[in-house]
Amino acid sequence: MDSALIYVLIAVVLLILAVGALLFVRGRGGTEAPPAERTAPRVEAPPASAEPAVVEEEPAAPELEKPEPAAGRMQRLRARLARSQGSLGRGLLALIARDKLDDDTWDEIEDTLIAADVGVEPTQELVEHLRTRLRVDGVNDPEQARGILREELVSLVDPSLDRTLNAGGAAGAPGVVLVVGVNGTGKTTTVGRIARVLVAEEQTVLLAAADTFRAAAADQLQTWGERVGCETVRGPEGGDPASVAFEAVKRGSDEGLDTVLVDTAGRLHTKSGLMDELGKVKRVIEKQAPVSEVLLVIDATTGQNGLVQARVFSEVVDVTGVVLTKLDGTAKGGIVIAVQRELGVPVKLVGLGEGADDLAPFVPEDFVDALLD
Predict the structure, then answer these.
(1) Known binder of ligand: residue 188?
(2) Is 186 marked as a binding-site residue?
(3) The domain that contains 119 carries what CATH number?
(4) How many CB atoms lie within 10 A of CB 76?
(5) Is 187 annotated as a binding residue?
(6) 301 DSSP 8-state letter
């Protein structure tokens, strides 16, 4: 075969193969174009808006506490006293209501009174008066005997004493109430309660935290001030109590306030150095204004020990009134009579619990009626 013919045949075969390949590829759908680049959709930012104006509101003023009216406090305290102290009065009533009041019965009456912390001398006085009246009047009726017992007890408590709280000043100076007593009697709480009553009577009051030795005493008093709406002058812990008292009374004078209540350290009455310091506090205060009231706070449950405290404090700061706290519970009640006889000054306030309103003016008739209820 001619070589030229061979080349022609080869070319034809190659052409046929090329055409076949082309047809095969087209039958499969052809080649795919490369995917187009994908771009993220354009997100338009929201239109900027002006930031809302911040309005700062004034903090709401704290709601100040107000005490229960005096009449309500007295009624509630009388009811509590009657529940806790009735043993004294009821015991006496049971004894004098006996058909026969012989010597043994009168001895029992004396023992009952002495056990109730009335004291020996007041007890003897009461028994003598009762024996005379019951014998002379020939009393056999229990109700009549109760009436005589009430009269004699009221007389023994002495309603003639002036029990007014002298919290006001004179000649432009504030009244200064110095509150003294040993630790644990409720002294700082008493200061807060008195402030509560005075502020409710629209008096301007300043507290002086002159108990600089007891941890957190100034904090406790300042908390009371915030509750009732008056400020507190305080110094560094362990600082000079007289300096704190002086600054408080000076500020009270400068600002024309009505009353400065001074809470003193709960010093032990057996330590002469501390008692001398209490005398210093009083002297320093009186460089600014006279002390109008010195209240001695006594825990009524301490009984005759309270009389020892009363005697020593009175010698140092000339006590003008007594606050008896914790008169409920185990207190005997007769301490009211004994402490007044010991000091010659009246019980002006009594406390019967831990509540803010558990402090009220002492009223002899109410006290005796509570004992006899």
Answers:
(1) yes
(2) yes
(3) 1.20.120.140
(4) 17
(5) yes
(6) G
31 is in an annotated binding site: no
114 DSSP assignment:
H
The answer to whether the CB of 191 falls within 8 A of the CB of 184 is: no
CB 358 within 8 A of CB 329: no
Q: 361 by DSSP, 3-state: which?
A: strand
Has 175 been labeled as part of a binding site?
no
Whether 320 has a binding-site annotation, put simply, is: no
pLDDT by 10-residue block (mean), the chain, 373 residues? 67 71 58 47 50 48 60 65 62 83 90 86 92 80 86 92 92 93 89 93 95 87 93 91 95 96 79 79 94 94 81 89 81 81 92 80 88 78
Any known ligand binding at 369? Answer: no
The response to whether 182 counts as a known ligand-binding position is yes
Global pTM value: 0.77
The SS3 assignment for 112 reads helix
Task: Answer yes or no: is 89 a known binding residue.
Answer: no
Q: Name, in order, each residue with C-beta under 8 angstroms of 89's C-beta and a sequence gap of 6 or more.
A: 149, 153, 368, 370, 371, 372, 373
Question: Is 242 flagged in the annotation as binding?
Answer: no
184 is in an annotated binding site: yes
Q: Largest Cα–Cα distance of the chain, in whole Å?
A: 181
Query: Which residues span the domain enclosing 123?
Result: 70-157
- List helix spans (H) across the chain: 3-27, 70-96, 103-115, 120-137, 142-157, 187-200, 217-228, 241-254, 272-285, 304-317, 335-343, 364-372
327 is in an annotated binding site: yes
Is 183 marked within a binding site?
yes
Question: Residue holding tokens 């020990």?
Answer: 305
353 is in an annotated binding site: no
The C-alpha atoms of residue 124 and residue 118 are separated, in whole angstroms, by 10
Q: Which of 131, 157, 183 is the last residue of a domain?
A: 157
Q: Do 210 and 242 belong to one domain?
A: yes
Same domain, residue pair 208 and 126: no
Residue 181 assigned ligand-binding role: yes
From CA 222, how far away is CA 244, in angstroms rounded?
A: 14
